[in-house]
């Protein structure tokens, strides 16, 4: 693009799709202050004089999507990603109070509008990926793809209750090809190349992606007060959901560490909290033994106590099923049912589960409860016989804070070394982790590639064997102090494990079997960065290391005790809370800062961490550059030195729709990016199927 384009409007029509193209704007301190002024004008109209600001449509939900357009495994365009520099675009969906919108942000940095309609409120929508086919299984809707699944207030029939049907539309022809009706409201949609999952309250229904016939359904989900009424996680093959009971015969080995066997680090961090919790637990035990409550009990405590005896539901239980091997019909986890298709069944929290997500490989699962204090990272190690032989390693407890917060979004980096968790307060918390566990440090996170668990020095010095021996003697997966706690048998959440497992482990000369004792130690991790949305008045980004204020980055050695600024929002989601979504991706800020230059192939590889993209209910997409570095207060820098992080916003895109924008509806031309991606993936699928 010529350099003169930098002075033009960031919006222009697209020659390819007919939609709008938005160029990135540099996120400087000046632009940030201008956005705050615009924000104040929207909130307080009497604070400005002159022409009123441009009217914007209200955003209800935001989501980053995975579809054929950014499928690196099946889209042949990205198979030469490392040699050609071609990288998949970000796919963003925005739900408005009237309709929805789809954006694509390619590596060039220019956001391209792909789809836009106004047909009433939309609760959930998904762009369905091309299904996996074989010689025995054909796609009945191959000529109609790509398909868009929508759950809106008024269904295609017009007579069904609000949000009680899923309509599947062809983006190629514009026609509705399928409508799936339900008797109860739908809360969310999930999909992969195998199934389409419809989430209802306390129920899950899965449909085959080739025929959209019902494959299986689950009716034993534990309800959650929100924001996800029925939280699930769908990977490439596994489906995780919140179970309402813990069945001992199906329970996997491991799971969450209880509060009474916290790690030494967690105990030091929250000593006061532990004492308070212990006193509360004593009171609860006395109450359970006597069958009475103290005279000063509240109505909520009396109600909970009365429901304790008659309610068989148990919160915090997670069940993972294999969508390929699970039997058709109802999936029931009970003492009388077999374990076919059940991958794992374990306790994850003591409170109801609020949100969970798989990492890209599907081997790690992050779960959060309704309190939002801590997030748990589990490693799932399956066994081909039954879920009771599988192991669930509690690798990390990601400690957010002591105040309550509801989690709405979880995202992994592509190398699974970073996790970002976003709450309804509009804050995104960035945590460092390792796929195999252990303390994040300079050696593990200052390299552009994932390193081995043990360094060459540690292996040559025999430290790996010493560590295994100490862990087996201590028996503690959660405590570094010998005898303080044992493996899951020390937790009330788990049944006792048979000591015969340890004997068989060593007699079979297999001390490295990850499904047998000893289980790995739990690591408590604090966030390196807490990023708030720039369009709120409370814009100070707090962190354990360097701090961010507005768009400028600087370090603060001593924490500043100041009263938090009030939060004001002109456009809020349900309940007056901020809807936020985040995703990791290659940097696209090069054009905003150097509009007259061409992008070099290796320019995006200069950072150790991918950029973090955050979209909020204001419709502003911001790219944040993450720069981890050794802790500045460390006396000496070594491989084990802890980390701190500097974050800086580099570019922003204003993607919120205005009432003056035209709709962009199918049928689309053959050169539309969504159609080209669907054709490429389908062609690849046919090649694999012969």
Automatic annotation (TrEMBL):
GO cellular component, one term: cytoskeleton
Gene Ontology terms: biological process: angiogenesis; autophagy; response to starvation
Occurrences of domain BCAS3 WD40 (ranges): 57-535
Subunit structure: Interacts with histone H3, ESR1, KAT2B and PELP1; the interactions occur in a estrogen-dependent manner. Interacts with beta-tubulin and VIM. Interacts (via C-terminal) with PHAF1; the interaction is requrired for the association with the phagophore.
Family membership noted in the UniProt record: Belongs to the BCAS3 family.
Listed name of the protein: BCAS3 microtubule associated cell migration factor
Record flagged with keyword Ubl conjugation: yes
Biased composition (Low complexity): 479-493
Listed InterPro entries: BCAS3-like (IPR045142), BCAS3_WD40 (IPR048382), WD40/YVTN_repeat-like_dom_sf (IPR015943), WD40_repeat_dom_sf (IPR036322), WD40_rpt (IPR001680)
Keyword Acyltransferase annotated: no
């Amino acid at each position: 693009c010529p350099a003169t384009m930098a002075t033009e409007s960031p919006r222009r029509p697209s020659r390819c799709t007919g939609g709008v193209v938005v160029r990135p704007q540099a996120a400087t301190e000046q632009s940030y202050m201008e956005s705050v002024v615009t924000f104040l004008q929207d909130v307080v109209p009497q604070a400005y004089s002159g022409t009123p600001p441009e009217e914007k449509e209200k955003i209800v939900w935001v989501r980053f999507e995975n579809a054929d357009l950014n499928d690196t495994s099946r889209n042949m365009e990205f198979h030469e990603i490392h040699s050609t520099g071609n990288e998949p675009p970000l796919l963003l969906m925005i739900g408005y109070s009237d309709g929805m919108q789809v954006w694509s942000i390619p590596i060039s940095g220019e956001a391209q509008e792909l789809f836009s309609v106004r047909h009433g409120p939309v609760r959930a929508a998904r762009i369905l990926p091309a299904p996996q086919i074989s010689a025995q299984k054909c796609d009945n809707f191959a000529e109609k793809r790509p398909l868009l699944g929508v759950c809106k207030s008024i269904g295609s029939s017009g007579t069904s209750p609000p949000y009680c049907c899923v309509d599947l539309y062809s983006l190629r022809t514009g026609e509705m090809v399928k409508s799936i009706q339900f008797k109860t409201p739908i809360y969310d949609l999930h999909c992969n190349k195998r199934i389409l999952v419809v989430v209802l309250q306390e129920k899950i229904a899965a449909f085959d992606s080739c025929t959209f016939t019902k494959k299986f359904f689950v009716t034993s989900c534990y309800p959650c007060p929100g924001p996800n009424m029925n939280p699930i996680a769908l990977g490439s093959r596994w489906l995780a959901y919140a179970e309402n009971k813990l069945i001992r015969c199906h329970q996997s080995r491991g799971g969450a560490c209880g509060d009474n066997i916290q790690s030494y680090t967690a105990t030091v961090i929250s000593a006061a909290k532990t004492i308070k919790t212990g006193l509360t637990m004593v009171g609860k035990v006395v109450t359970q033994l006597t069958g009475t409550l103290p005279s000063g009990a509240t109505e909520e405590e009396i109600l909970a106590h009365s429901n304790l005896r008659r309610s068989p539901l148990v919160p915090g239980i997670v069940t993972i099923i294999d969508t390929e091997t699970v039997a058709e019909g109802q999936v029931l986890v009970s003492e009388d049912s077999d374990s076919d298709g059940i991958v794992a069944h374990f306790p994850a929290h003591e409170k109801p589960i609020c949100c969970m997500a798989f990492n890209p490989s599907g081997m790690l699962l992050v779960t959060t409860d309704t309190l939002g204090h801590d997030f748990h990272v589990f490693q799932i190690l399956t066994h081909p016989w039954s879920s009771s032989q599988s192991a669930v390693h509690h690798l990390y407890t990601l400690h957010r804070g002591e105040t309550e917060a509801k989690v709405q979004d979880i995202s992994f980096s592509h190398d699974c070394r970073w996790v970002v968790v976003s709450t309804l307060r509009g804050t995104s918390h960035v945590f460092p982790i390792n796929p195999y566990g252990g303390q994040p440090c300079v050696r593990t996170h200052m390299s552009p590639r994932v390193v081995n668990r043990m360094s060459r020095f540690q292996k040559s010095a025999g430290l790996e064997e010493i560590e295994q021996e100490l862990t087996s003697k201590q028996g503690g997966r959660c405590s570094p102090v010998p005898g303080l706690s044992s493996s899951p048998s020390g937790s009330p959440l788990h049944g006792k494990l048979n000591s015969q497992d340890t004997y068989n482990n060593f007699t079979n000369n297999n001390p490295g079997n990850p499904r047998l004792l000893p289980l790995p130690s739990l690591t408590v991790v604090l966030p390196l960065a807490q990023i708030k949305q720039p369009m709120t008045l409370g814009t100070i980004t707090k962190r354990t290391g360097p701090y961010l204020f507005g768009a400028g980055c600087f370090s603060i050695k001593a924490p500043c005790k100041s009263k938090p600024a009030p939060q004001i929002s002109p456009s809020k989601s349900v309940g007056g809370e901020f809807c936020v979504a985040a995703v990791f991706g290659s940097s696209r800020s090069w054009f905003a800062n150097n509009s007259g230059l061409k992008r070099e192939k290796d320019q995006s590889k200069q950072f150790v961490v991918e950029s973090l993209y955050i979209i909020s209910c204001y419709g502003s997409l911001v790219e944040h550059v993450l720069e981890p570095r050794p802790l500045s207060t460390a006396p000496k820098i070594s491989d084990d030195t802890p980390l701190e992080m500097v974050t800086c916003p580099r570019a922003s895109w204003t993607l919120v729709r205005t009432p003056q924008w035209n709709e962009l509806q199918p049928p689309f031309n053959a050169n539309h990016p969504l159609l080209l991606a669907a054709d490429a993936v389908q062609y690849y699928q046919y090649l694999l199927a012969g």
